[in-house]
Amino acid sequence: MSNVHNNSNDPENYKMPLWFLRTRHAIYYILGIIEVLLGFRFVFKLLGANPQNGFVAFLYSISGIFAAPFSGIFDPFVTSGLAAKSVLEPAVIIGMAVYAVAAWALVGLIKLKVTR
Q1: What is the DSSP code (8-state) at residue 8?
Q2: Distance separating alpha carbons of residues 89 and 92, to the nearest angstrom
Q3: Where are the domains of the chain?
Q4: What is the DSSP-derived secondary structure letter of residue 87?
Q5: Which pLDDT tens digit goes with each residue over 65-107?
Q6: What is the Cα–Cα distance from 19 to 4, expressed in whole angstroms?
Q7: At a CB cut-off of 8 Å and minimum separation 6, what does 96 contact?
Q8: 5 neighbors 17 (Cβ within 8 angstroms)
Q9: Hey, is 14 helix, strand or coil?
């Protein structure tokens, strides 16, 4: 197994160490999972999903871990309808942006180490 990735079709990855490529893919994979969880939380809260449902309760509990650091920055907007209560949580949107920037910055720092 080679320690250097030689793919002439992708000039950015040309002669990058394999450990860097795997680390970058792992960081972006984890970011994707967090973004999907937060995205579902945002949509379900906005549409007024039933929090008593097992799947929705599970999703809220898991995604709440990632949304918690950003709660309280802005107050959520709540509207009560006839059948459901719709909640707009700006903390989730802020969290999605911050996690994306953090992952991008982490990959950039690792790339600096590789190119030196």
Answers
A1: T
A2: 6
A3: 4-115
A4: E
A5: 999 999 999 999 998 877 788 999 999 999 999 999 999 999 9
A6: 9
A7: 35, 38, 39, 42
A8: yes
A9: coil
pLDDT in tens, 2-46: 565 555 466 666 678 999 999 999 999 999 999 999 999 999 999
- Residues contacting 8, CB < 8 A, separation 6+: 14
Alpha-carbon distance 91 to 99, whole Å? Answer: 12
Taking the C-alpha atoms of residue 21 and residue 36, their distance in angstroms, rounded to an integer, is 22
CB neighbour list of residue 62: distance below 8 Å, 6 or more residues apart: 37
Would you call 86 helix, strand, or coil by DSSP? strand
Q: How far apart are CA 91 and CA 38, in angstroms?
A: 10
Which residues share a beta bridge with 89?
none
